[in-house]
Design brief:
The chain is α/β, with parallel strands linked by helices and 527 residues long. The chain contains 13 helices and 11 strands. Strand 1, helix 5 and strand 2 form a beta-alpha-beta unit.
């Protein structure tokens, strides 16, 4: 399913998009004793502006980059994506022996040894008299692989950062009490928090929408909840603290295929995507100001991401808080400009670059807190640029969509990898019709057109402190399932749509639970 350099492809597997030729400076796969930059995980909020420098003489990356963190993130990426890419390879092997004696036992052995779980026997029976239902087996394997990944995420915290509290302190020092990010629902942006921006996912809010067209009313409710929590409980800080709510929108584009591999919701028009996101940000700020007369408590930020290589475009607001789609700091240009600098000088270097760049573009500067946060984000993105250069030869081989399943509903905190999931955050299919239509269109090309069903994980997280919350969460999953099958009845009737229903208590660290699946026998209970 994912591009692999060690397995041969067959007709069952997806076509590999063409790679874009790219010759990054001093590219190499060898690791180096990278510098622990000022903005590293262990130096967030360091007031003296210094840090230790451990740059090797023959380094292969940027001095601000965190090679140790890159290794850890790549190991996790390989582990999870490898488990999904194994599915089609194993199913091909199982398909080739379906008429052999002892087939069911052989199939289960292959699944256990290579996928880590067994297959439903009712999908393997009668294979001697009719073709094996590869489509249903495929979706089952996708669902089980996701469940294993989800369990691992919540039980073992493989992507947890050690600096959650430190980043919150740093954020408040910059003048913000919450960072609320709305990226595009495109799976190529699913890693925006933990990888592209290198932020602790437990501290930063993420909710994705097609084209980054976030629900203004939903964000307004989140703002009200945040301010009420500050007023009643002093969390994350006291209501009278001079901090603001930071709303961020993240759009995307493709530098190698700008007309075809950009944002589908905006017709791969990068200018349109950026301008539309700005419009939504301004609507949110205006909504707060009109409803509560406190627009000054809202700050806005726009980021653009090149999905070929994760290079960041940072659209900083001016002194009046306004954002211009044509003005931004390009992290790749910053990478080159600071390549020979010392890690101990990271903050001053990047801040100076931002000031100079703004002056050249004729823009006024935001306040010191926003500049400090911008420098932090740009420094973190330098690590991600090196990550793509070192582990993906400077450009992802899966430039286009290669997601494995659609994630629909409310939740999915555990999905932090690029091109794994297409998100459709919604409470009803009707309200998220645009997002779901885009997702189905994407998966029609990826799966349905070659005979494989579309796997949809329906999720509804709940708070167990609220009476009967779990029961309502399960009921919403069932409602979404029914509405999904009604809206896309052609797919469902042809067996080209399968669903896994899950709920999770988000007020605890527990794992998600399965409460239904279209592939279970009618008389089998979920567990």
């Amino acid at each position: 399913m994912f591009n692999s350099r060690v397995k041969n492809r067959s007709t069952l597997q997806r076509a590999v998009p063409l790679k874009r030729a790219m010759l990054p400076r001093q590219q190499g796969a060898a690791s180096y004793a990278g510098a622990q930059a000022l903005f590293s995980d262990n130096s967030v909020g360091n007031s003296n502006g210094t840090t230790s420098s451990r740059v090797a003489s023959n380094r292969t990356g940027h001095p601000f980059s965190r090679n140790d963190e890159n290794k850890h993130l790549y190991s996790y990426e390989q582990k999870i994506k490898g488990s999904f890419s194994d599915i089609e390879v194993v199913l091909q092997e199982i398909s080739s022996v379906q008429h052999d004696s002892g087939f069911i036992e052989r199939a289960q052995q292959l699944a256990r040894n290579k996928l880590g779980f067994e297959l439903p026997e009712h999908l393997l029976e009668d294979s001697w008299v009719k073709p094996l239902d590869i489509g249903s087996l495929y979706c089952w394997c996708v669902f089980e692989t996701f469940r294993h990944m989800s369990d691992d995420f919540f039980m073992n915290s493989p992507l947890s950062a050690s600096d959650d509290n430190e980043f919150q302190t740093f954020l408040e020092q910059c003048g913000f009490h919450l960072m609320d990010v709305s990226p595009c629902a495109d799976g190529r942006l699913a890693h925006v928090i933990r990888y592209v921006l290198r932020l602790p996912h437990k501290v930063v809010r993420r909710k994705s929408y097609a084209g980054a067209m976030f629900d203004v009313d939903d964000s307004l409710q989140k703002w009200v909840k945040t301010e009420m929590l500050r007023y009643r409980e002093g969390k994350p800080n006291a209501a009278d603290a001079p901090t603001r709510y930071l709303k961020v929108a993240a759009y995307h584009f493709s530098s190698s295929h700008p007309d075809t591999e950009g944002c589908a919701a905006h017709g791969s028009d990068v200018q349109r995507a950026a301008q539309a996101a700005i419009g939504r940000l301004e609507d949110f700020r205006q909504g707060v100001e009109n409803s509560f007369c406190c627009g000054a408590s809202i700050d806005l930020l726009l980021v653009g991401i090149d999905t070929d290589n994760d290079v960041l475009r940072l659209h900083l607001p001016d002194a009046n808080g306004d954002i211009d789609a044509s003005r931004y700091v390009d992290a790749a240009e910053l990478y080159d400009a600071t390549y020979n600098e010392s890690a101990s000088n990271a903050q001053a270097c990047i801040t100076s670059y931002i000031e100079k760049h703004s002056a050249e573009q004729g823009a006024s500067l935001p306040d010191e807190g926003m500049k400090k946060l911008a420098a932090y984000l740009l420094c973190k993105n330098i690590s991600q640029i090196d990550y793509v250069r070192q582990y993906h030869q400077g450009c992802y081989s899966d430039i286009g969509h290669q997601e494995c399943f659609i994630g629909m509903g409310i939740g999915f905190e555990e999905v932090r990898l690029r091109n794994l999931t297409y998100f459709a955050y919604l409470s009803t299919v009707e309200e998220g019709a645009q997002d779901m239509d885009v997702g189905i269109k994407i998966f029609t090309k990826l799966n349905a057109n070659r005979g494989l069903p579309i796997p949809v994980v329906i999720r509804n997280d709940y708070h167990s402190k609220v009476p009967a919350a779990r029961e309502r969460a399960e009921a919403r999953c069932q409602q979404l399932d029914a509405a999904l099958r009604s809206r896309y009845s052609d797919y469902a009737e042809k067996g080209l749509l399968h669903t896994l229903l899950m709920v999770r208590d988000c007020s605890s660290d527990g794992r998600a639970e399965m409460v239904g699946c279209s592939l279970l026998p009618a008389n089998q209970e979920t567990h």
